[in-house]
Amino acid sequence: MLKRTPSLTEQAKACIKKRIFNDEFEEGRIPSESDLATDLGVSRTTVRDALSRLEQDGVVYRKQGAGTFVNKAGLQIKTRLEEIWTYEEMLEAHGYDHVVRVISAKTEAVSPKTAGALNLSPDDETLVIKKLFLADGLPVVLTINHIPTSLFAGDCAAGDFKLPVYQFLSEVCGQHLGYYLSEIIPLIAPPWLADLLELPRKKTAILSFDELGYNQDNEPIIKAQSYFRDDLLRLRLIRREAA
Predict the structure, then answer these.
(1) Cα(139)–Cα(29) distance, rounded to whole angstroms?
(2) All residues at 6 or more sequence positions from 128 whose CB lies less than 8 Å from its CB, including other chains
(3) How many contiguous H segments (helices) and E segments (strands) does the chain have?
(4) Is the model's pLDDT at 43 over the cut of 50?
(5) How many Cβ atoms sit within 10 Å of the Cβ of residue 193?
(6) φ and ψ at residue 66, rounded to 5 degrees
(7) Residue 206 belongs to what H/E stretch?
(8) 218 in the Ramachandran plot: left (φ > 0), alpha (ψ -120 to 50) or beta?
(9) How confident is residue 1, by pLDDT bands cut at 50, 70 and 90?
(10) Which of 57, 67, 88, 214 has the smallest C-beta neighbourhood within 10 Å, fewest atoms?
(11) Topology given in CATH for the domain delimited by 87-228
């Protein structure tokens, strides 16, 4: 299966963002589009588009007649909620050493709720993969992914279950994860979840994502739940006035 290559604009954006986080721009002032284009070996149009995307992300801001500057408040946003990212990337962005632990990976009969979400028949099955992500040795995220067995081209190797889910879908199932429809749900951790995340069994509030992932043909290919310890992992976003 062909793998998507980042566009020049995306590559330029990533390079500029890396230089921003490395504090390479004196007094937070971004060089001119011409200078950046020369440094990166791309056109001014590519640089302009990259800076526009960084501005949309809240990483930089423009002053009329003065130039483009680093937005220090925006640097607090380690993970953008509207983008697809791996939990490995998220933990690295927060400065943690991470370990992925596969708790279980087994085929199960599909529940009515999951069958409805994934457009499956009641007698279909899904592969259910449960993974625990550790940050500096502490459990911080639990994920439970339901993937229809009908998508599998062959057998899975044990190491496949540790792959980031988008990579697993691509390499094992031949599916490209186009987007998620996500619902953010606060909840009180039940005892089984509190034990896995090493939380007190008393009423401890956590954050969860309930998500349905679609391929490029808008077909549902994965149902996913994620549970976060918000004492170790904070998710921030920038909210703006509507245009």
Answers:
(1) 39
(2) 104, 105, 106, 107, 108, 144, 145, 146
(3) 7, 9
(4) yes
(5) 16
(6) -115, -30
(7) strand 205-214
(8) left
(9) very low
(10) 67
(11) Chorismate lyase (3.40.1410)
In whole angstroms, give the CA distance from residue 14 to residue 25. 15
Nearest to 145 by CA among 122, 119, 118, 112: 118
The second-level CATH assignment, the architecture, of 8-76 is Orthogonal Bundle (1.10)
- Alpha-carbon gap, residue 48 to 52, rounded angstroms: 6
Domain boundaries along the sequence of the chain? 8-76, 87-228
* List of residues 6+ apart from 38 with CB closer than 8 A: none
What is the distance, to the nearest Å, from the Cα of residue 131 to the centroid of all Cα atoms in its chain?
15
137-154 pLDDT, tens digit per residue, is 999 999 999 999 999 977
Q: What is the mean pLDDT of the chain?
A: 86
Cβ neighbours, 10 Å, residue 87: 21
State the pLDDT at residue 189. Answer: 93
- Residue carrying the six token digits 């009180």: 188
Q: What pTM did the predictor assign?
A: 0.69
**CA distance to 37, 38, 64, 70, 78, per residue, from 57 (Å):** 20, 24, 19, 12, 11
